[in-house]
Here is the input.
Amino acid sequence: MGLIDELGAFRVIDGHAHNWSHFADSQYLRTCLDRFALQGIAVLSNLTGGFDPTPDEVSQSNEDTARLRDAIGERILPFCYVNAAHLEHALGEIERWADAGFCALKFWVSQRATDQRTWEVTEAALARGWPVLYHAYYRTHGDAPPHEAPPLEIAQLARRFPQGQFIMAHFGAQFEHGLRAIEHCDNVAVDYAGSINEKGAYEMALDILGPERVLFGTDLPGADYYVNAGRVLELDVDDAVKQQLFAGNMERILGL
Amino acid sequence: MHLYAIDSGLIVGPCPFRRVPSSVEELQVLRQRAGLWRAVASGFRSLLYYDPLFGLDEDIEQYAPLRDWLYFYATIDPRFPQSENGVRRAAADERIVGVRLLPAVHHYALDAPEVDELMGAAAAVGVPVNLMARIIDDRIAPRYVQQLVPPLEAVAEFLHRHRQVKIALSMFYFSELKGLVEDWHALPHVYVDFGCSKPNVTSLDVLATYFPIERALFGTGAPFYYWAGSRLGLEGSQLNADQQRAVLVDNARSFFAWD
Here is the structure.
């Protein structure tokens, strides 16, 4: 049995994808959903506006997400993208898109997790019952975007809102650092979406966080779906645990 | 599992950053799970020791029980004294199948005279050369590891200058490879290892439109990296079955002269 057949035995939700580049095309995205047999895909934003998007760019991104959901249907799980540096606009976006069926909040790199405005936006999202997915990166080389949050800030945010559900993206990039940072925050789940591919990441996450806090995501279309999925298949755990990672945990967090 | 695949880029042995599951027993398990007929490895010791050949000796000794399927590159720092011994070793030792250059770690220019001498020596004895872009993802390498990936212009110039040697590029990313060479068909001595190259959603699907598939290799970097993602990426791609088999088996047989 090939790995493709192994993968076919699981129900899969991609908890971390974007509607930029190839996925701006709803027809191509639909084709990929069918080809990958995905039950659902969390669309986080198209990242219009780069590291510090204007209010208009944020609105445009969310409108593009909504159009994709309208074109493809309920397999699209729309996340509301905000720039908390534009506080009033961010709060308005949450209100607008909650009414339109969006299901979670996405922070990228335009605000630190320790910023007062981030707290206010987080509070509004949690009040809607949304989980908050936060890009987090511990970089050892190169220049980080000026307001990128490292994993320890995600831990601070999660402790400030113990009733909220958070998702720290990418395991915080350097996985030992990222996972240790949020280890004792039971309200933080993690995804390893993207192109970083270091053996041991999922194993450590399962070991110190437990299988309930580990999600599957890909960072499509900038990364390859199968490359991401294969990491989960490689794990030396029961299929029931793999199923939790592939879909069960995200279904629980989003109330699907 | 049927043992048929060739992994042209394992990274094995004691890793200074974290435990990597690469004991003899663990590599046997990897072999079975991944269905490897043969594999070519570099050990962390040969990649990181001052004298890479000392490291290679330790790798070969540790993994002697796997000698029926596990082979090695001889990593060489061309500016290290007596580096020509590495080329001789590669030509004479049946467990060594090629020379590996790692300028990102050893910090030399690809147009250095010592590199030209080494490539000349490799050509003279018919040993293939692997040019490894990096060991670790540039974003998250330990701070004390300063990887200086060669400029792409220098890599392209290196490929054009050394047409007498079979060269494989490894650990380059698709984002780098796409613009590295205008016409890959015009460089018939160059192979590329796509097993650890960070594809996006279309990278592997469209590979055959610009790259001669008969020169694509597949090294996953396991067990330092996950192998099954890379393999599943190939299996799930829109390359046809013959192309996938070429990437996974036939091309490596050709590159390492295992026909």
